[in-house]
Specification:
- The complex is a heterodimer.
- By secondary structure, chain A is α+β, with helices and mostly antiparallel strands.
- Helix content of chain A is 28%, strand content 36%.
- Chain A has helices spanning 9-15, 23-27, 30-38, 42-64, 133-144, and strands spanning 2-8, 75-82, 86-93, 96-104, 108-114, 121-127, 153-156, 162-166, 170-172, 175-180, 183-189.
- In chain A, a hairpin with a 3-residue loop joins strand 8 and strand 9.
- Chain A is globular.
- The two termini of chain A are 23 Å apart.
- Residues 194-200 of chain A have low confidence and may be disordered.
- Chain B has one domain (3-83): Orthogonal Bundle (Non-ribosomal Peptide Synthetase Peptidyl Carrier Protein, Chain A), CATH 1.10.1200.10.
- Chain B has helices spanning 3-14, 21-25, 41-55, 61-65, 70-83.
- The longest helix of chain B has 15 residues, at 41-55.
- Chain B is globular, with a radius of gyration of 12 Å.
- The mean pLDDT of chain B is 95.
- Classes of the chains: A alpha+beta, B mainly alpha.
- The A-B interface holds A 12, 15-18, 20-23, 26-27, 50, 54, 67-74, 160, 180 and B 34-35, 40-46, 48-49, 52, 61-62, 64-68.
Chain lengths: 200, 84
């Protein structure tokens, strides 16, 4: 299963003060805090690790059908490759490992997490106002599946996990959505998905 | 502390982080921080820290885990205050 997360860096800087007393200890292990303090750009490191945790938890939540939880310390991040524009790593959650890939720009950090390596995750990011986001998403996703916009529906289960439905018992849940500030993203895993896509 | 009093304090704490003002008008026990108020997840950490400061309690990780609604927060605050 997959999950994703986007952080609008400009909004995060305005909206969250991770330097406030107690913040880091609620979210990051001592090893992760060392990465933050050793980083040349601690703000980016905070939001990179954050997005890895959030993306991995979304994949985990979908994998095991779990409610949302507020326990970031359960998600243990390891970064294996870090460049100025990309990062990849692993997040362990209660003996499950998720592989993460992140795109880092001056505006945002976008991370997707997958349970199985190379599950063909495709990420898309776009800017939209909150009033037009749903329509835009339906449009863009319909194009991914070569469907008509009116055929596809975006739904959420009782835990708020999104999935797609459509005509002819089309059902797709190897999918994740995230929005923060200016940015909205979706990720799709399109490899080996015969079992989940029933579109006759 | 009375439940009503706790909810009143929580409402003040949560206000600066709310993204859905319409849902905030119906703030009550059943209000869900994420689903209803659309609070950004990083700000949930701030809410936990603000609650700790305001009520002078320490919220351990297991308690924080389930703090998804106003009612969850009320129960955690009451339990922690009793323990003190």
């Amino acid at each position: 299963m997959i999950g994703n997360d986007v952080v609008d860096l400009e909004l995060a800087a305005r909206q969250s003060n991770w330097r406030r007393k107690g913040f880091l200890n609620k979210v990051f292990s001592s090893t992760e805090q060392e990465l933050i303090h050793a980083s040349a750009n601690p703000d980016k490191m905070v939001w990179l690790l954050w997005s890895m945790k959030e993306a991995a938890y979304k994949a985990h939540q979908r994998e095991l059908i779990l409610p949302r939880r507020l326990n970031w310390l359960v998600q243990k991040c390891e970064i294996s490759i870090l460049t100025l524009e990309t990062a990849s790593g692993e997040v362990e959650i209660e003996n499950h490992t998720y592989y993460t890939t992140s795109e880092i720009t001056s505006d945002y950090i976008l991370t997707s997490a997958e349970k199985n390596r190379d599950s063909g995750v495709k990420n898309a990011i776009f800017e939209a106002s909150s009033s037009e986001v749903k329509e835009q998403l339906k449009n863009r996703i319909s194009k991914e599946f070569a469907l008509e916009n009116k055929e596809i529906q975006l739904e959420k289960d009782r835990f708020g996990i999104p999935f797609l439905t459509g005509n002819d018992s089309f059902f797709f849940n190897r999918f994740s959505l995230s929005g923060h500030g200016r940015f909205y993203t979706y990720s799709l895993s399109l490899i080996n998905c015969e079992t989940t896509v029933k579109h006759s | 502390m009375e439940t009503k009093e706790i909810i009143y304090c929580l409402k003040k704490i949560v206000k600066p982080y709310v993204q859905n003002d319409l849902a905030f008008q119906d703030f009550g026990r059943d209000t869900d921080f994420i689903k209803d108020l659309e609070i950004n997840s990083a700000n949930l950490v701030d809410i936990v820290l603000d609650v700790e400061d305001e009520f002078n309690i320490a919220i351990d990780n297991d308690s924080m885990d389930n703090m998804l609604t106003v009612n969850d927060a009320v129960e955690i605050i009451k339990t922690k205050q009793r323990e003190q």
